[in-house]
Protein: Anaerobic sulfite reductase subunit A
Amino acid sequence: MKIKLSKENFNEKLKTLSNEYKILAPVSLEYMGTFSDTDVVRYKEVSSLDEMELNRKSNFSAKEIVFPITQILFYFTENEFKESDIDDKKLLIFLRACDINAMKRLDEIYLKNGIDEDYYYKKLREKVKFVLVGCRESFRNCFCVSMDSNKTDNYSMGIKIDDNEVFLEIKDKDLKIFNGEKCEFEIDFVKENLFNIEVPQIDKINSKEISKHEMWQEYNSRCIACGRCNFVCPTCSCFTMQDVFYKENEKVGERRRIWAGCQVDGFTSMAGGHEFRKTKGERMRFKTMHKIYDFNKRFGYNMCVGCGRCDDACPQYISFSKCIEKVNEISKERK
Ligand code: SF4
Ligand code: SF4
Structure:
């Protein structure tokens, strides 16, 4: 069903929906940016279209909704535990095609990568419905077209906004509370980015040769292991665990799952002081190969969706898309 309605009408119905759904969308958080007097665009609960920031790329993706930065999994005492409660409301998330495709990658890792599904991820993920926000034009550093993630049909509702009119494509019957005039329109998908890259085919990548290649050495001096590239990435899914014991009673506490990143110091540290990937170059190699080779070998497509957030966030101006291009060049040089 495709309809158009006024913003006021849309906002009214959104308010009604908020009785049943927690509505989450990118918002601009003033003075919360990295530098003074700057904002940051992040996912927060909203109640109207006016609160949403849909004209810019969000600095962080929607992944923190299903995979929170810090998540209390359960509380424990000496001989029993209690799972942490979660909100009963369903989740309606406004996001772009690349971020819906990124959620598919997280689903692979958390639900299809082994014998068991991740219980805590599933509990949040099964509450989610997507509202697809079209992209009229590409943002800086995006290369979603090259990564084949500029389009999706995995959404419950699609939205396009034109001045004071809202165009909706409603696929989910539970969202048919919006009413308006029937009309024809298409959700905008970016067809071209500001630049394109050639992504190497996995059968052309010699992983052993690439692993030893000198290309990674440049990152030893350039990368400062801040992990920003990991934390803004909608497909990075690594975490660490912390058991926190309360001061009042040290036999009682909580288990938390917390984001971790492969670029950060200590990520591969083991008891006894051994570390698998000591240098920044080795970490860059691991991240790159995970995004465009290892994941692909297991699931049949690339993990990176080309959102460009890692390039946006890197304080050292390290470009991940350039890194993929270098791997491609080396792979092509092979006879
Ligand atoms: S690696 Fe960079 S471009 Fe690829 S999905 Fe992650 S943040 Fe986006
Ligand atoms: S954001 Fe840049 S400097 Fe920071 S860890 Fe990632 S690649 Fe290194």
Summary: Residues 2-65+85-182 form one domain. The radius of gyration is 22 Å. The first strand starts at residue 2 and ends at 6. Residues 223-229, 263, 313-316, 318 surround iron/sulfur cluster (ligand 2) (CB under 6 Å).
